[in-house]
What does this fold into?
Amino acid sequence: IYKRKPFEVAKITGEMVQASFSRTAESAVALDGCSPKEVSLLSLTIYCHIATLLDQIEAGAPWPRTSTHARVVLLEKIGAQVGQVMSYMPLTITSPLYRCWGTMRLECMSPWIREWALPEMHAGIPEMGAVDAWHEVLTTLEDHKLNGEYFVGGVADIAKQIDQIRRDLVYRTCNVAGMPTGVLQAYEAYLENLKVHNCVAGGMGTPTVRI
It folds into this structure.
């Protein structure tokens, strides 16, 4: 496992918050009633207050109670059998405050991420994504075909993989790898206090905590 001393990031400023919020695209409204597009229209003065709030959270203050509530909507998987439970994928819609903080801090940590990122990684890495993985695999297969080489591949899929993530293990791994202490503290505090509401057919369930 990659090990290093905690990577240092600069304190959050109003200008940083403004830049992060201004890049926010139109997306779903959270339970706190805030639209990501609306918060991109605030003044620099308010962004400075938000920066102070986020700095305090990274120093150990709790997240605002309204921000730790999220709604879960169900998206039907393409080609899946209609009406079956496993035919739907849950999507958690969190507060724009948390989303923009995460985007901003991910950008701040990009030098740290590049220290341990491997060429085989196509998720959570700057300028890399699933499309890059598809192109790489297809290019490799095309090269084998043109050269008349035999090839074989395997595919593994973990059922409900997202629900099987051990958060305590993630926190420890990030700490050993040198994730900025304040960022890791705020990240853990948010996930451990997050309450989700399942939304089905226009209705909303009672808050539950993910174990």
Remarks:
- Helices lie at 14-22, 44-58, 96-108, 110-116, 130-146, 167-177, 181-193.
- The first helix runs from residue 14 to 22.
- The two ends are 26 Å apart (CA to CA).
